Amino acid sequence: MSTNVLIMPGSLRLGSYNRMLASEIMRLIAVSDAVVSRVDLSDYPLPIYDGDFETEAGVPENAKLLAQRIAAQDALLIVSPEYNASIPPLLKNTIDWVSRVRKVDDRPVQPFKGLVVGLAAASPGRFGGLRGLEAVRIVMRALGADVITQQCLVSNAATGFDESGRLTDDASRSNLESLCDKLLDTARSLSRHG
């Protein structure tokens, strides 16, 4: 049975370094035996999370659809920018809403519980998004995800990609390949659907 991997960039900006990194990850995983897909959060617009809104209107349909898609995966690779040393609001809001989904097709579900999660970031700064990923790691572990230790950080991202979107630094490319290998190996061994 194939391993299903979903790549989720936490940015909507067209020139985003993290979207470029997500494309590079897609290329790497696509040559494996895994089934890889990518989600664009602009396809799942959500209001800012508000408990009163949830009480009155319920969980938005887009959160349910995204939760269903995530629940069908063996692994999720989050590619996140860093905003003020933390999680960007788009990504955090999405995670918050998806975590509120309790049923998919009348079956109980916890979309992140037991999900193998890998983390990557690209940043124009010298830390490569490290602090933001630490914040994402804490949130995902709190939701029951199996977050792998291996991660990829691309610092100085303004010069980190060539004109075709490939990583220019050998160390970054090696680190990314290691992340992808570890994610796939862990997902195969801990598959939620096998």
From TrEMBL:
Start and end residues of each NADPH-dependent FMN reductase-like domain: 4-157
Superkingdom classification of source: Bacteria
Family matches, as InterPro entries: Flavoprotein-like_sf, FMN_Rdtase-like_dom, NAD(P)H-dep_reductase
Name this protein carries in UniProt: NAD(P)H-dependent oxidoreductase
Organism in which the protein naturally occurs: Jiella mangrovi
